[in-house]
Design brief:
Strand order of the largest sheet of chain B: 1-2
Strand content of chain A: under 5%
Strand content of chain B: under 5%
Order of helices and strands of chain A: HHH
Helix content of chain B: over 70%
Shape of chain A: elongated
Radius of gyration of chain B: 39 Å
Helix content of chain A: 55-70%
Number of strands of chain A: 0
Mean pLDDT of chain A: 87
Mean pLDDT of chain B: 87
Low-confidence stretches of chain A: none
Number of domains of chain A: 1
Largest sheet of chain B: 2 strands, antiparallel
Structural class of chain A: mainly alpha
Radius of gyration of chain A: 20 Å
Number of helices of chain B: 35
Distance between the termini of chain B: 94 Å
Structural class of chain B: mainly alpha
Oligomer: heterodimer
Chain lengths: ~120, ~950
Amino acid sequence: MEIILSAAIGILSASGIWLVLRPRSFQVVIGLCLLSYAVNLFIFSMGRLTPGAPPIMPKGGFIDPTLYADPVPQALVLTAIVISFATTALFLVVMIASRGMTGTDHVDGKERSQQ
Amino acid sequence: MAEHNLFLLLACLPFATSLILLTLPPRARGASTWLSALSLAGGLAVLAGFLPGIQAGNVLRASMEWVPSLGMNMALRMDGFAWLFATLVLSIGVLVVIYARYYMGESDSLPRFYALLMAFTGAMQGILISGNVLVMVVFWEMTSFMSFLLIGFWHQGAAARDGARTALIITAFGGLCLLVAMLMLGHAAGSYDLGMILRAGDRVRAHPLYGPMLALFLLGAFTKSAQFPFHFWLPGAMAAPTPVSAFLHSATMVKAGVFLLVRFSPVLGGTEAWFFTVTGAGCITLILGAAVALYRHDLKGLLAYSTISHLGLITALAGIGGPVAILAAIFHICNHAVFKASLFMAAGIIDHETGTRDMRRLSGLFRPMPFTALLAIVAASAMAGVPLLNGFLSKEMFLAEAVDWHNGTWLDNALPYFAIVGSSLSVAYSLRFIATVFFGPQATDLPKAPHEPPAWMRRPVELLVLICLLVGIFPALTLGPIINTAARSVAGAHMPYYHIAVWHGVNAPLILSLIALAVGTLIYAFSAKAIPHGPEGPFLLHRIRGQRVYDWILFRLTWRLPRLALRIFSTEALQPQLRLLVLTAIAVACGSLWGALTFASDLRLHAPNPAFALLWLVGAACAVGAAWQAKYHRFAALVLLGGAGVVTCLTFAWFSSPDLALTQLLVEVATTVLLLLGLRWLPKRRSEIAEDKLLPAKIRRGRDLVIAIAGGLGIAAIAFALMTRPVITNVGDWFLGNAYYEGGGTNVVNVILVDFRAFDTFGEIAVLAIVALTVYALLRRFRPAPESIAAPDQQTVGGPSLDDYLYVPSVIMVWMFPVLIMVSGYFFFRGHDLPGGGFAAGVTLAIAFLIQYIGTNVRWVESRITVLPIRWMGIGLLIAGATGMGAWLFGYPFLTAHARYVHVPLIGDVPAATAMLFDIGVFATVMGAVVLMLVAIAHQSLRASRRREIDDAPRKEAA
């Protein structure tokens, strides 16, 4: 499982990085989304993989922390998901506004100059 | 104890007054004058109460805790020297306040002026009475800033702005040096307490850091006291209102530097390095200042250079450093403050009543303003060192020190000559001031007809001149005892009592004084004709201007160099920047993990599950596909992105994280809709870009592919190495163990979010709200691309309507509204104990609204429901904040939660934690923010169609 997930994180981030380095703004938006999946999964996996043990406690009694998944990375990622939605929205708006104003969807607001 | 409190009161009073003054309206001239003067007089009364203790040689202390972790207490300390100086500052302050009342015009806001002046006084007094060297530096910087504001008080004028900026740059630079020096000093002495440092002189001088420490310390003191080569800011600062010059540039601010030199001379002084730099710089400044002063045409310019020269004299004395030199330095600090403040005020009166300060135009003012003239003449004579005036006494002590004191170096041998030259020049410029301004033919072309000023404008000058005379004639009865107390507190209690007397018999200093008077008169007599027509500086020297050198350096540093750096290191293009960012990240990761990235010996592995492998086969294909298609087939890329998102979401669910899976799924929906809405405004890419086929583009893509693969491999390796390590106990265990007992909830993730780490969440929802508002603001002035303005087929009249495509789904979507509200409520209420919570519920409700927009259209929805997302956001943030602050009422820190179960009949035990209230805030903010962003983008089509109608109207009319 660990091998699969780390390979998945690797592929997601490689796709993300490649897209972020592209010249078209839509590519960069998609790239950022993919990168945020990769990073969220990465942070999440720092709590180790524990299938079938969600951090939902019984009401009372002794609690053995080793029986549950680590809640801290989950809490971190939960807010990160919502925030990454917000940044995507922001970038999207900047993108369409820039497209409207400059007439091009190049990230610099102008086409690469002919050399 | 009473003394302790009074001392604190003394330190705080000017600042408190300053704050009160800021609240007064600009027309409250009388009230603000009274308030400032009374505040300073109150400070003086407190000081008078301390006098008996000070004269007995006591050192007053008081302290408040400030930053205990840095060993920084708000420690105050007052000995004889600090007392004398503080009294000087406050007394001249009172006089300046009275004077400014008449000097400042009707259009100037006096309360603002006084507020700055009071804050400055507080800072200056803070330097004098702080008992911790770091606190002293804080006050030191504060005087720089306050003087910046005061010099630039008439900020309409370019000269005032430039002068203020120069002063700030020079003195703040010095302050920075001083801070480092003080840190070293504290390190060397083993304490930042002033008293301890003053006793640790031997240790400090023997310390290996003594050299740099001394250099930095002197940079601080010299810049503040306008010593060569930093003297040029002082004449520039003459653009300040004259009361400011009278206060800051004669009596207080520039004296802070010499105060520091005198204060620390027992610690840092006594070495050859100290003597040569301090006395050397002092002598150069003494002569240079006096020489330039003689040639200045501006009245205040002459006084400014004379101040520089006198500061040089005090610095030279501090460099000598024996008990008598210290006493002479302190005495001259007082005398110079008194006569120079009165001279500045007199210059201000002349400027105020005649409209000019140019000495080439001023002439024969004795006749129209005899009283002012008399006062100015006495004060100028004190400046020249005429017997029976206070300036004579301290200058003679300087001459005596120059002659009598020896350490055998060449500078020591040259000292009497420097002294005599400086004194002669001082006589010459004083004479020029008196002769040009008050005597000769009465000027006829002055901007205003000169006459005596209002009586109260002259009173401060009268008092100061009276002090000049009293101290000059009865030194032993007036200032003698307290000067001795002050000097003893600096130089040590063993110092013998020094009798300041007018007449010591005919001795070397007296003869030198007389020579100086004679030579000075001769110098003026010979150059009086030439000066008004010559340049503003002595022979050749006027060509080298400190100001120009400073401008040259500053221009290079702040204009040329940054632009050069920008040209070399920067680019406007985004791609190279991002590439650099990614490469740096990879390099840093490689650098820090090289050889350190080891895999655990006992790998923590779960057996691969084929279903999971298959899942990620799809996920990886989606990710790569999205990367591949994003350029020409945006919609396909978007669908593939959604695929990767769903697989991510399933992964969260697989590994025991239902909350994340739920939130990710909901956010996925919102993101997809958002991007779809955005695609509407991004015109379709019609033809392939020809350049993409060329070799350079292929090389670029190849290079980026290598970077991407390297980055991906690196992250995968790190993730694998970390995932397979054994679990170590961490803070998560504590959360697990205490979520129910402390937070009253069984869903630990939610308890962390709304209780244990609620402050983080509070910050995050604030960020969300800010981003949503930014999106909203950006879209208000949105101009779509010309190609996408045309209405799509579905919106054109006669074209296929929405019903033709999605009739059944749209009916279902409308009916889903109440169901989704229900689901949202369900998520919210179970959140504390089971997966769900404010974030998930908020996004769900947002989706409920969104579906209405998708299923029908904007007009249909908005004629039926009113959504006010900004209010939801605002109320949500207020609820979250208020819940946090509620904890204060019970004496707990911000956002402390309280949890209990309340028994509700029929339903049973219901969790009722304050965290739940906080979660309502989170819910409302998230919902408001998501709806605001989506609706803002969705509304653009409405605006576009309105714009089309406006554009079409004239065309229809024409038809």
